[in-house]
Amino acid sequence: xxxxxxxxxxxxxxxxxxxxxxxxxxxxxxxxxxxxxxxxxxxxxxxxxxxxxxxxxxxxxxxxxxxxxxxxxxxxxxxxxxxxxxxxxxxxxxxxxxxxxxxxxxxxxxxxxxxxxxxxxxxxxxxxxxxxxxxxxx
Length: 138
What we know:
Layout: E1 3-8, E2 13-19, E3 26-33, H1 37-47, E4 50-57, H2 69-82, E5 87-92, H3 96-105, H4 111-114, H5 117-137
Parallel strand pairs: 1-4, 4-5
Antiparallel strand pairs: 1-2, 2-3
Helix pairs in contact: 3-5
């Protein structure tokens, strides 16, 4: 069994999280500049077995899709050509940034560390992945 990777895709950077090989625990991995995401994934996939990727679906409170979805769909097209053996899942990412900010604020990190957007992206990816794992087991 391989890992499941989650990507919190953004125009500037992407938060990345991964499960363990047993697909039980989600852990934040890294924040990668968006233009570097495919090279990062090529390297990561060459070193780790990844079965599935979960990509956040940017939905607002009213159920409308965010404008970044156009960029995400373009990315998914490129991803599927580069990594045809890896299954892509979409998962509602509503509230993940707010939840990430809250968890970070409770972690005892300094104000400067709490405001680091890259950390929020990585924690958001972890929340997306953990929620995906929990829904899958229900």
